[in-house]
Amino acid sequence: MNKNTAFQEIPVADIDVPHHRERDDEKFSELADNIRKQGIIHPIRVRKEDNNKFTLIYGEGRLRAAKQLGWILIPAQVVEGVDDQTVLLQWLTENLQRVNMSPKDKAINIARLIEEFDYTVKDVAEHLGMNEGYVRKLYTVIKDGSDELKESLNQKMASVAGNIASKFKKKQIHTEFLNVFKNENVKSQKYQQALVKSVDKKTESVRQSIEKIQKELKQYRQMVSVAESRRESLIPSLEKLRKDSVFINKLKIYRISLKW
């Protein structure tokens, strides 16, 4: 495969952007202001097409800022002879290395590598330098998750969402969990994970499952309370036996060992 590379200034109007990611408006404004003052230090990367147009590989933020600033031309590293798979992989890799890409964007493009280019989860993890289990969770949400679960993919919910999509096949259950987290103010990932783990995977209703768990917990607390009260009442008698030499000798004769 020919991968000729050159640096040149190309028209911003001739660049197609095949991949997008969500951006923080405040950070983008800072980027645009920096480019206005300093120019573009690191050129964008594009693939030259047969019609003399270009496909963006990475540098969407810089390209968008240039357009906003009214630039006609932008400095670019121009490559030829790379396929769509390589374009996507380079885009993902560059964004993962340079910016805090949202888990939702990661998941969507991981799914593209798997479904369009026949990558395995292991392949994606190795190529992108990511944890295989994390990649699997993100892909599971995109492949099997409800629309609401997909939208929940953010820095704090990615792992929890992956566990929900992996464990529960019915999409209404996915949405129920999110509603429970919101309505019951369950914000800690630790408690969210514990709740997901405690609900039976064949449940028809998250709410009913939680009510059952709460009922069982109440029964356990009552049992513990009864056991504690009986223990308190037995302590004086046990202390008395501990000091009874006749009782202690009989234990030794019958080779009985007790833990007080």
Shape by Cα distribution: elongated
Give the CATH superfamily of the largest domain: Conserved hypothetical protein from pyrococcus furiosus pfu- 392566-001, ParB domain
Number of domains: 3
How would you characterize the largest beta sheet?
5 strands, mixed
**Poorly predicted sequence stretches spanning 5 or more consecutive residues:** none
How does CATH name the architecture of the largest domain?
Alpha-Beta Complex
Q: Spatial order of the strands in the main sheet?
A: 1-5-3-4-2
Mean pLDDT: 86
Distance between the amino and carboxyl termini: 77 Å
**Class of secondary structure makeup:** alpha/beta
Compute the gyration radius: what is it? 30 Å
CATH topology of the largest domain: Conserved hypothetical protein from pyrococcus furiosus pfu- 392566-001, ParB domain
Number of helices: 12
Helix content: 55-70%
H-E order:
EEHEEHEHHHHHHHHHH
- Kindly estimate the percentage of residues that lie in beta strands according to DSSP: 5-15%
CATH class of the largest domain: Alpha Beta
Number of strands: 5
